[in-house]
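The instructor's notes for this session suggest beginning with a concrete chain rather than abstract definitions. Hand out the sequence below and ask the class to guess, before any prediction is shown, which regions might be ordered.
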Amino acid sequence: MQKYSLDRLVPFLENRYGDDLRWVANYNSRTYEYRFHHVRDDLTTEFTGNQLDYLVHRSLAVYNKRHAEEVYFNLGAADSLVVDYEHGTALHVFLDDRRGVTIVVEPTVSVTVPDLVDECREHIDVA
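After discussion, reveal the predicted structure:
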């Protein structure tokens, strides 16, 4: 199985969004493993205990490639998923059928799909 490196992605996103970048994590939706690569400082105090971990764990159950393709079965293969919330926008970039990257930015940030997805993929290396 291929391994992915986000060593170039995180600095790219930090430079583009600055303090508007809330967090970046990669995940495996089958094993529920994930790793944070960036968490904005204020979020470490906004979320208590394991709330941020809980949030990511729950999102893996719903916002994954298999689920998106099951819901929208008539549209073909899913490449990404964007969900706008009151306090942020979550972009899920699917890397394969089980792994992906979640990028969360402030709700005032404009996210352009598919351009941003393509730019993110250009900054994700196969290790």
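Then share the key points. The mean pLDDT is 92. The longest strand covers residues 21-28.
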